[in-house]
Structures are given as structure tokens and as C-alpha cells.
């Protein structure tokens, strides 16, 4: 049978079905080291780290879903010549580690998840390489660490402890091995991805993106209580005020106890109470759906919040929706400003085509919010060169990096000009 002949039917007795062998499991090359829990042990490792060479792989484990705080409960580090360390930062003097890391390049995966909690214990990078962001720039459809390790290094990673309570003490050995594996191959992964970025002509893009990450701070949400799940079921503004005051009371209790707010009472309980607006403890606890560990324990706090909300004058009630400082949602553009809607449609098509050409997600080429803001309120000039400069300045003012401006500004300039021309009927 030639290669061009189709195969039909089922395999015969003499046929052999060959399945690809699974990738080998990633293991610790140096074995599991003891957790550093004393200042003396940290000082010793810091000296080894300072004497090591090359970039430092670093990761942190938090207790999201268990604790209110986003603090680091374990820090993992690895550097050539120093090996891997697992550091319990609670109660330690981090000064030796801070000094050892001074001037080094950090390798992180999904840096925005860890930079804040590392900064909280005094660890701030002078420069960094983010393997997740590098994967996005390189056009990988999936950029989780385990996926990239299998794709580029041909090894599988265990991920069964990603949602563990890392505030637990002592930490089980299997958890510690999982944590150590997160930095085991970051140095090798960085080297491969840096080469790939160079070959793709994207090394400068990555450099600018990594430099931008050095100034990252988590977004502080306006009115975070508005993210309460199912809040749309609350119809009255006094009910909205009850959601706000119940959410704030729960948040205060959670912060005091350092537990995730949902373990006090769930969002569903807040919504049910805000709909019913009970005025006493018995009525509150009788509400179907009002449950959680803290439902009865903090019942007086909940009743007080509801009574306060019910007594608020109309002028003090929260608005149903917040007025944003940005443009309206895109689906409303055609009605509010048809010219802007045409600009947006043209620009989106052009950015999508560019993303396909350079094999990079469109949201990496330009933050969608920057695109909408520019096209809703573009520069006034329509002289092509002046408009190009003005578009670039406006994008830069929003926070776009130079490589993004260079690639997208000409497309957006053209979209602004083309959008002004009403299509034939």
C-alpha cells in the first residue's frame, strides 16, 4: 500500500497501533530541600544565591480562597550554583535575601500574580522575564506553565496542589515538591523563549513589556461591593445600600480574622438579606438562603447594617450604576455616534489582521480599553502625518508601549480617516 492509498476498516491481528509515549514526569534534580524557617538558614542560602550565576527563578504561594490577605506563605527560588530554596517568609528577617537579589534578573511565570505579595516582604526585581507573557507574544494558544514546559521541554508537571491552603503548617512534603517544581526549569525555559523571541523579531517587544511590569501595582476597584454575585436581583436602591453595608461589614470581619470573605457568609446570603430587608435577628435567620459560618455568629452586625441601609435618605443611597470615565460599551456606539462605530469596526478588523500576521493576540498588540478610548475621542486633525503623531501621543499617554504604538498607530490613523467617510447607501 502506498502513502496515497486510504486506509479503511479496522486493524487486523497483525496491525500494530502505535501510541505516542507520554512525556516524562518532571522531577527535582537535586531532591527536596528542607524549608528555610530560621534567619540563620536564610542568611546561609542568601550567601549561596549571591555567589550563584545568571538569572533567579522565583515564585510565591498564597492562600487564595482560604485567607483574606494575599501575602506570600512560601517563596521558591532557584539559581545556577545555588540550587533551589523553599523559604517560609512568615516572621523572618528578609534583609539578607533582599541584598542577595539586588541587581539580578528574576524569571517569573505570570508575574502580575506574584509581584505584589513579593513586594510586601521587601522583594522587588531590578529586571524580570515573564515566561507567560513571552508565551503570549510568541503566539502560543495556551501559556500555562505546565503547558509550556511540556511544549518546549518535553516534560509533564503535576498541578494538583495549585489551589491548596499554603498557610497550613507544617506543609505536606507533596506540596513542597510541587512548589519546588515551579522553579525547577524556569531558567531553561527562559533561555529557549529568549531565543525564540529573538528569532521572531520580538525581543524588543518583550523587553519593553517586562520593563513595564516593573511598575505593576494591582488595580484598586471602585465600589468593589458591586461585584457581589447575583446583585442584579436586588431591585430597590435601599436594597443596594444593604448590599454595600453588608459587604463592607463582611469584609471588615474577614480582614480581622484573615479568612476569605465567602467563608463568613456567601454572596448569595447578602443578596437574599438585601431583598428581604429583615429588621430583627429572628427574621434575618429565617431567610431561606441566608447561611454560612458567620450567619448566626455575626447576626447582630448584619441586622445593624440592614437597619442602617433602610434608614438612609434618598440622597445618600448608592446609584444603580457607576458613571465611568471611559467611552460607552461598544454595542451602544452605533446609536450614540455612528462615525465612531465605523472607526471602531475598521480598526478592529485591521488589528485582527495584524495579530494574525505577527502571530500575537490582539490584546497584546494594544489594550482594548486604549483602542476604545482613542476611537471614541480621536485627535481633531485629519492631516495624515499630524494625525499619526497625535494618535501615537494619545496612545502613549494611555500607557501603550513604543512597540505597540509603532505597530498600531498607522492602522488606527487610517481607521479614523476612513470612518469619517459615510459608506454609500
TrEMBL record:
HRDC domain span: 236-316
InterPro entries: 3'-5'_exonuclease_dom, Exo_C, HRDC-like_sf, HRDC_dom, HRDC_dom_sf, RNase_D-like, RNaseH-like_sf, RNaseH_sf
Top-level taxon in the UniProt lineage: Bacteria
Name of this protein: HRDC domain-containing protein
Organism: Nocardioides jiangxiensis
Amino acid at each position: 500500500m502506498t502513502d496515497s492509498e486510504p486506509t479503511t476498516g479496522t486493524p487486523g491481528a497483525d496491525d500494530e497501533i502505535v501510541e505516542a509515549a507520554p512525556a516524562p514526569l518532571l522531577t527535582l534534580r537535586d531532591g527536596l530541600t528542607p524549608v528555610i524557617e530560621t534567619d540563620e538558614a536564610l542568611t546561609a542560602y542568601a550567601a549561596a544565591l549571591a555567589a550563584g550565576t545568571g538569572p533567579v527563578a522565583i515564585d510565591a504561594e498564597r492562600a487564595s480562597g482560604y485567607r483574606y490577605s494575599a501575602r506570600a506563605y512560601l517563596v521558591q527560588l532557584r539559581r545556577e550554583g545555588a540550587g533551589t530554596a523553599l523559604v517560609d517568609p512568615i516572621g523572618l528577617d528578609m534583609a539578607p535575601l533582599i541584598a542577595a537579589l539586588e541587581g539580578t534578573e528574576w524569571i517569573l511565570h505570570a508575574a502580575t500574580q506574584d509581584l505584589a505579595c513579593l513586594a510586601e516582604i521587601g522583594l522587588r526585581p531590578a529586571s524580570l522575564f515573564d515566561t507567560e507573557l513571552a508565551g503570549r507574544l510568541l503566539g502560543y494558544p495556551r501559556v500555562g506553565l505546565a503547558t509550556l514546559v511540556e511544549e518546549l521541554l518535553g516534560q509533564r508537571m503535576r498541578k494538583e496542589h495549585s489551589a491548596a491552603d499554603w498557610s497550613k503548617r507544617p506543609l505536606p512534603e507533596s506540596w513542597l515538591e510541587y512548589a519546588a517544581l515551579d522553579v525547577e526549569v524556569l531558567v531553561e525555559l527562559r533561555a529557549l523563549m529568549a531565543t525564540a523571541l529573538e528569532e521572531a523579531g520580538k525581543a524588543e517587544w518583550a523587553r519593553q513589556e517586562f520593563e513595564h511590569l516593573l511598575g505593576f501595582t494591582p488595580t484598586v476597584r471602585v465600589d468593589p461591593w458591586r461585584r457581589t454575585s447575583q446583585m442584579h436581583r436586588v431591585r430597590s436602591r435601599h436594597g443596594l445600600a444593604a448590599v454595600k453595608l453588608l459587604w463592607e461589614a463582611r469584609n471588615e470581619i474577614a480582614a480581622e480574622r484573615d479568612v476569605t470573605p465567602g467563608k463568613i457568609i456567601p454572596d448569595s446570603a447578602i443578596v437574599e438579606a438585601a431583598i428581604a430587608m429583615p429588621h430583627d435577628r429572628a427574621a434575618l435567620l429565617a431567610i431561606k438562603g441566608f447561611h454560612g459560618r458567620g450567619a448566626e455568629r455575626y447576626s447582630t452586625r448584619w441586622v445593624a447594617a440592614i437597619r442602617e441601609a433602610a434608614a438612609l435618605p434618598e440622597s445618600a443611597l448608592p446609584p444603580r450604576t457607576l458613571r465611568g470615565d471611559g467611552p460607552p460599551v461598544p454595542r451602544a456606539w452605533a446609536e450614540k455616534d455612528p462615525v465612531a462605530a465605523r472607526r471602531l469596526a475598521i480598526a478592529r478588523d485591521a488589528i485582527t489582521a495584524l495579530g494574525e500576521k505577527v502571530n500575537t493576540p490582539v490584546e497584546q498588540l494594544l489594550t482594548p480599553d486604549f483602542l476604545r478610548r482613542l476611537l471614541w475621542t480621536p485627535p481633531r486633525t485629519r492631516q495624515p502625518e499630524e494625525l499619526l503623531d497625535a494618535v501615537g501621543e494619545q496612545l502613549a499617554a494611555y500607557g501603550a508601549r513604543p512597540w505597540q504604538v509603532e505597530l498600531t498607530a498607522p492602522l488606527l490613523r487610517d481607521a479614523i480617516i476612513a470612518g469619517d467617510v459615510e459608506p454609500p447607501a
